[in-house]
Design brief:
By secondary structure, the protein is α/β, with parallel strands linked by helices. The chain has eight helices and seven strands.
């Protein structure tokens, strides 16, 4: 795929998302349970950091889409300063309109592949929710991660800035498809606008694992949910059209312990800037 065609694939996909979903919470994530668990994890991460902060923090949502997560956070933590960065013009316009008149939220147009678009060393908490997988070139993914790490506050005279990445990985998708194969279910491939990551993607010299005595976020938080939704439910409804947000999945995901196994391509990784 050429660079031009890759750009067009992403631009067209998210133009349609903006047109069809508007400012809905389902924008960029049609699965309501995944959206809820992501949002709860993000809020818990931010709350944990703020519990030890002695000043107002800058919280940035890179690839903020229509601004849904930013709105949840700005209402939950009104005393902080929020920044949204969005490349897709149609989603940017929706997010900008969402925060008209808000004095603690700023939404700007930008591309995480461009170092100049990420405020260097100015971010206390960075959130990256299913964004890096939209870069369909490994070099661009590496460049974007470097820019995001550089955007975190440096650990000078204290602890560095913190980041939460929610991204998808090839190895966990392989585990999920292995489980599906036991029931003669077809393998699931990444969406056409996604390029999943290798397990060592976040082995970056500027990042160290986030440490907290009060907050625990397993990277495989969604594993039980994915096994229930994409294996058990799919097996029982084989031959029927795939249905998101089913009552079966809602019930068993709530009844079973979360974070069992490694069956969720979508994983959570929290870090602190180390240098």
């Amino acid at each position: 795929m050429t660079k031009e065609s890759y750009e067009n694939v992403i631009a067209e996909h998210y133009r349609k998302v903006a047109e069809e979903q508007g400012d809905s919470p389902c924008s960029t994530m049609a699965d309501q349970s995944i959206r809820r668990m992501e949002t709860e994890a993000i809020c818990g991460f931010v709350a944990d950091i703020l519990s030890r902060a002695d000043r107002k923090l800058v919280i940035a949502d890179v690839g903020c889409g229509n601004g849904y997560t930013l709105e949840v956070l700005s209402k939950a933590f009104p005393g902080q300063s929020f920044l949204g960065l969005e490349k897709t013009p149609e989603l940017f316009a929706i997010a900008r309109k969402r925060f008209e008149g808000a004095d603690n939220v700023r939404v700007v147009s930008g591309d995480i592949r461009n170092a100049a678009d990420v405020p260097e060393g100015g971010i206390d908490i960075l959130l990256c929710q299913r964004v890096l997988i939209n870069l369909l070139d490994a070099g661009d993914q590496e460049k974007a991660l470097n820019n995001l790490v550089n955007g975190l506050r440096k650990p000078e005279g204290g602890q560095g800035g913190h980041a939460l990445f929610i991204e998808s990985f090839n190895s966990s998708l392989a585990n999920l498809n292995e489980a599906r194969s036991e029931f003669d279910l077809d393998p699931i491939a990444p969406a056409h606008h996604n390029q999943y990551l290798a397990d060592d993607y976040f082995d970056h010299p500027g990042l160290q694992p986030y440490a907290s005595e009060t907050f625990d976020l397993p990277s495989n938080l969604l594993s039980t949910y994915y096994f229930t939704a994409r294996v058990l439910h799919a097996m029982l409804t084989k031959g029927k059209d795939f249905k998101r947000n089913s009552e079966f999945v809602k019930f068993f995901s709530a009844a079973l312990a979360p974070a069992v196994g490694d069956y969720s391509p979508l994983k959570f990784f929290a870090f602190t800037r180390s240098r």
